[in-house]
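Below sits my pick:
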Amino acid sequence: MGVGVSNWRLAQAVSKVGQLGVVSGTALDSLFVRRLADGDVGGHMKRGMDAFPFQSMARRIWDEYFIPGGKSSDEPYPTTPMHQMRHSRKMVELCMVSNFVEVYLAREGHDNPVGINFLEKVQLPHLPSIYGAMLAGVGYVLMGAGIPLHIPGVLDALAAQRPAEYKLSVTGATPEMDTMMRFDPAEYAEGEVPQLRRPRFLAIVSSNTLATTMLRRANGRVDGLVIETPIAGGHNAPPRGKLQLNETGEPVYGVRDEVNIAELRELGVPFWMAGGYGSPDKVAEALADGAAGVQVGTAFAFARESGLKNDVRRAVLSDVRGGGGKVYTDPLASPTGFPFKVVQLQGSNSDPQVYAARKRVCDLGYLRDPYVMPSGSVGYRCSAEPEDNYLNKGGAMEDTIGRKCLCNALLANIGHAQVRKDASVEPVLLTAGDELKTLGQFLPLGRVSYGVADVVKHLLSKTVSDDQESESILSTAALKELFSPRQFKTS
């Protein structure tokens, strides 16, 4: 869904109706700072911070970033230092607190589990972010966009309040280089350290090979798998083999990219199907094939409870009602090099004119690529940053073509667009799965919006009888078994 779309409100709403709500953990520190700069509308951030176990840490962040009444609309948001392999204490604390607050708020008002989703590719904030979520009692950690072999071990260490390590992927690194990131909870504790439980870990993979790799080579327990097809929103795995593009310039996926569900069943762990499973028929199909359920993203992304700006949500749903809802799988947009699903929306950064008018800037840096500089130290570059900067860091000009700043665009999608010195405002860039055009199934005649409960009721309509339906959606007692066969998740 992108940054802050699956926010605490959406995850809370999904979990309240008996499914697994999952918050997005990407760029939560920046989103948190911008919420405070907007005056903490509704007081929700303060309520979460008041529950944080280390109150001196919470107060430091509040005092630095909270703006009473909110900043004016023509003022820029405050910036924070970009993440590096060796974090400042301030950035570690910001990751801890922001992830805690998001999970804490998502867990309010119900007893069902809540999960958090991270991108393996965005490695730099992993350790303090995961710890902050665990302090809030997160029940599941999900991770894709890479091969997260070492996350199970991180969860084991942090649950025991031991130091955790995560090896940073650095382009050009030699075997003798120390590229290990380290986090010791004891260095940040203020007073008594709370007891933690290990969340369940679900690896998001796109093939049988990756599924098997995760179960055989991970440095700890993998509790389940999310099997994501190429029609899912956000980043997609590249096609296997030589890249081929169709007549519109989109990657071509073939038989080698299909998963063998019979082989998945033999792996012995629960699995959820994702990408193209947001309909009653596909939910029923997944369960019949032996899946524990499905992961749903696009349908929830455009529900009223999601973090998308209201005008953006209305514009997309209006397009869908009119027979539109086009999604383009862009092989160039993401600085990661992974294909990225882009909603074609007038006035957004999917418009070539809007893209050409935007001045390149890299001031958030979540998708930067760490690399070894000539000096031997670690530097950071992004193919969506100003071209001259990228070339001076040893990057290739051809890698900058078509690249878009996803970090700034995704924050703009949720109403926190940065304002530049020239008074320009960061444009939005939406992502969604290919199922975008099917959202009309949640919009009965005459309605222009829908909510989480509408999605859940519709998706379960072919898997339970009329007598069971209400209980399956609303009862919490029936869903204490975390691997309920009727469970599905927000992505």
